[in-house]
Amino acid sequence: MVIIKAKPNILESYNFFVIPSWGHLLGYPTLGQYSNHNVSKISHDLVIFFSGADCSVQTEKGTLYYLFGLGYYYAKFELQSGRYVTDNRQLTGLVLTDFVYDYLSTSKNVTLENDRDVIVSENLFKLPIDLSNKSENKRTFIQGTLMRNLFIPYKDIILEFMETLRNPQSFQLNRTEPILLSTEWDSYNQILVSSEMDYEMKTNYLNTTAGLNGITLDSKKHLERYFSHQQLQYLEKLALKLRKVYSTIDYDPMYLFSILVNATLKLRSEINSSYALKVERSNKKMPKESIFLSAEPRMNKFIDWPEKYRRKTKDELERSVIQVKSKLYQPKEVDKETIDIGDFRKEQKEFKIRTMKRPTVWAKPLPIIPTRNSLDILLVIKDIVNQDYDIRSIARALEIARDYIKSMILHSNVLWEMSRYVNFYQNVEPNKGLSSKEKLELTEQIEKWINLISKIQST
What we know:
The protein has 459 residues and is of the alpha+beta class. The protein has two domains: 299 residues, no CATH class; 85 residues, no CATH class. Helix content is 35%, strand content 19%. A hairpin with a 4-residue loop joins strand 5 and strand 6. The chain is globular, with a radius of gyration of 25 Å.
């Protein structure tokens, strides 16, 4: 491919974007893999973005659209064993080819058809962070629409994203470099990470996940094709400002619209007051929705979806799954081994119970553990136990959970029992997972803690 050196015009644009199903947008290209196991079903594959800028770039193959900011790819899926798993990837950019952008911008509207700034469609939610230029009645209507269609149905995922932003270990842009969710022709349905990413982070991040064709290198080289060094520095600084805003704002978990209200005030103090770029646009019906400011010149142009990326339905994709017995994620309950005992007159069989055998597992990063609600903390710990983490990671998760719960001055028996598990698991050899029996016992113990704390909180 001949590289066309472009001079993209980066436009600041502070919006909240949610693509409710990445697979639905792309026509379900793959179910993907997770920890070398086949995914059989996907129940959620959400993309969330707090954007700070967008731009378009003309290439030899067509137009590429870029969204820059802080993003999150969240997936909940089922492996062949029938076990559900959740996974996520942090993002700093979204790359859309012209045919994907055009498909997205012509998605069927659910409501708000007469407002070009706010989009509520089957494939996209988009609204400005700052709604101060709307009338009070319009803001009330937008708020109600978004609460019903976005903030209530996807509340838990949005809250998880916000908690991730609060975690000081997340979005370490100086260590990660750019992380792009891409539909570019040569990296279609992939996440691109930088080869310069911190080694430990890169090792963990390159693990495949559901709904994607892969996670590959090299995002930085990709961006350097089209953007100058100064532009890339500007985008990094912008992302750092966004992180400062969204990692520190207060919000009401029961009223998620408060995220946008408080972000508006914070953005005004952290970024020049000119951030709310005013573009004169009529509200008349247009051929496409105005998703990116940089796409305005192409409002009357369309690129058809290529046959190379033939679209499928979710049912088609899931029905095409071929069960591979050797790839089942859940081990069999019992494994029998025959051992010859020479001193006995008749052959003896020794049965080795798999429920007592600890499998070898690979270490993987822990999910974000909540900090404010003890029941939420224990539910996350329960998920960790059920997702086949190595025992030392489980010990670390229990230790974090214990310290959070301790700060809430809860039942001393719970803290003592958690400490007992932590001390025991910390001494287990590396890369060993819980046996089936240990997993069952720990899950039952966590259920007891949950029931106990529920009773305490209800009194």
